[in-house]
Amino acid sequence: MAMTTSNTIAPGLPRLVWALAATHFVGRAGGVVRSFLVLYLTQAQHLSPATAGSVVAAVGAGDIGSQLLGGWLGDRIGRRNTMLAGFVGGAAALTALGSADSLPGIWVAAAGAGLTLELFRPAGSAAVADLPPAQRIRAFGLLYWAANLGFSVAAVTAGVLARYGYGLLFWVNVAASLTAALIVWRRVPETRPAGAARTRRALLPVVLRDRLLLAMLAVHVGHFTVFLQTFTTLPLLMAAAGLGPAAYGAVLALNGIAVVVLQPWAVRLLAGRDGSTVSAGSMLLVGLGAGLGAVSHGLAGFAVSVLVWTLGQVGIAVRFGDTFAALAPAELRGGYLGLASAAWSVLRQPGASARCSARSPGRPCSASPARPSSAPGARQAGSPCSPSGGRSGRPCAAGPVDSSAERHCP
Questions:
Q1: 10 lies in a domain?
Q2: Which of 31, 126, 166, 213 has the smallest CB count inside 10 Å?
Q3: Domain annotation covers residue 198
């Protein structure tokens, strides 16, 4: 079944693209630490919710920097070397984060993890942008599909793994990063155009003169702002309608399933159409879906709302990478695609770091009890939380911090 779907989305693509898709899947499927980071910090490290939120913000700050740095390095030292540095550096940063037992050390390791774990994304996108234009849309579609499939796997497995201790989450994430690095080392050749180093130009002056790029960045920032609001307002709207967390989880699962199922068909349907028309129509669908959510009062209405804006999400993803790849000079493809990815990362961070403080009184960012095993090299950090507060004095929340808005960007 998986092979049939893959052949539907990307027939006849070079091995490079399949190798990149494998790294995206492995990296996302094994990326289990981030969703449970706040829970690890409040349970195993006994940090306050506000302090845990500041650590999440440090990861977010590093994440933003990684998009810009990954694109810049991809143009300077090559796509392959940048991806290797990101995956190996990410494994080292995660090991340090799981081992740190002081707040400054945790902050530094968290920023390092954010800075390295996403380096592969703009570099991998630049490698796809180096392909002939006729192959780009299908290649970007395959990467997006593989990443979201991996995200869905991580969402299911992370909660199961956490029952055996947060240390296991760190080890799995480290192993996934090293496995992705091995795939790059063995299967991903360098694709940077010959002569790019000799014709190197500074990125910023070129960007400031490129009015079309600036306009497209502004349009997509506006779109992402509306899109991310769906994840902020949807749980509030559903709660006001008397629907509980289980219903919210169900409609979010519908989003993930729809993306994985619809993406291959959307690539075939939309690849040959005008990119501006596809993007504009997709943005309208996201706005329409968000509006439907505002007037819905039952589970079926909210499900329809999610399906509508998911169609828009998929449509944007089909043309997003190709849009910015087409604008970029050959020697600055990494930088252009890094800027595009950073537009998403900048907008998603406030919500990610604020989710702790948004919890209701008496329910800080802790989770259902997990065994307090150490992360890589870490000391034993004490007992987990309990429903009554337990030795830690921290009541347990119902589950992991919602990471739905962390789903792979277009």
A1: no
A2: 213
A3: yes
CB atoms within 10 A of CB 382: 12
Region 33-55: what's the mean pLDDT?
91
What are the helix (H) ranges across 132-243? 133-162, 166-187, 203-209, 211-240
Distance CA 91, CA 82 (A): 14
The model's pLDDT over 132-168, given as tens digits with 9 standing for 90+, comes to 998 999 999 999 999 989 988 888 888 889 888 899 9
pLDDT tens profile 266-318 = 998 988 888 889 999 999 999 999 999 999 999 999 999 999 999 999 999 88
User: What CATH number is associated with residue 139?
Assistant: 1.20.1250.20
**Residue 102, number of CB atoms within 10 A of its CB:** 9
CA dist., res. 306 & res. 316, Å (int): 15
Dump the DSSP string for 71-115. Answer: HHHHHHT-HHHHHHHHHHHHHHHHHHHHH--SHHHHHHHHHHHHH
Q: Quickly list H helices, 118-165.
A: 120-129, 133-162
Number of domains in the chain: 1
6 found inside a domain:
no
Instruction: Identify which of 77, 65, 54, 68 has the alpha carbon closest to the alpha carbon of residue 115.
Output: 65
Q: Bridge-partner residues for 386, per DSSP? A: 395
Structure tokens at 397: 């929340």
Host domain of residue 282: 15-406
- Two tokens, residue 257: 């399933």
- Tokens 């009184």 correspond to what residue? 361
